[in-house]
Amino acid sequence: MDALSLVKNGGRVLEFGGAPSGTTIEVETELLHYGELTIMGSFHAAPSDFERALQMIVDRQIDVKPLITRRMRLDDIAEAFEILSTSKGELKIAIIP
To answer: Which of 36, 67, 76, 85 would bridge 72 by S-S if both were Cys, CB 3.0 to 4.6 A apart?
Structure first.
């Protein structure tokens, strides 16, 4: 779990994404103890949550346009990933085929 070595002291690591039943992780306890880290798990939304969110977008209760901070061509996808990995201001880049 690389996240534990990357988070600063007192930080939290959120693990999400489905894993098969019985999956385990190993943690270096020194990182938890001296780094005062917190490991948290999160379950994604239920299908009804996605339906409600989509309906809110359709009904324009939520404006999602500001989430896309840039649009780039598919030919420039490598540049898009570079921007996302180095920029603190870019949130989402829409890739236009």
So the answer is: 76
CA distances from 96 to 34, 52, 53, 70 (A): 46, 27, 24, 10
pLDDT of residue 72: 96
Per cent of the chain over pLDDT 70 is: 99
Q: Encoding tokens for residue 6? A: 């990357």
The pLDDT score that the predictor gives to residue 1 is 61
In the chain, where are the structural domains located?
3-42, 47-96
The pairing of strands 68-73 and 12-16 is unpaired
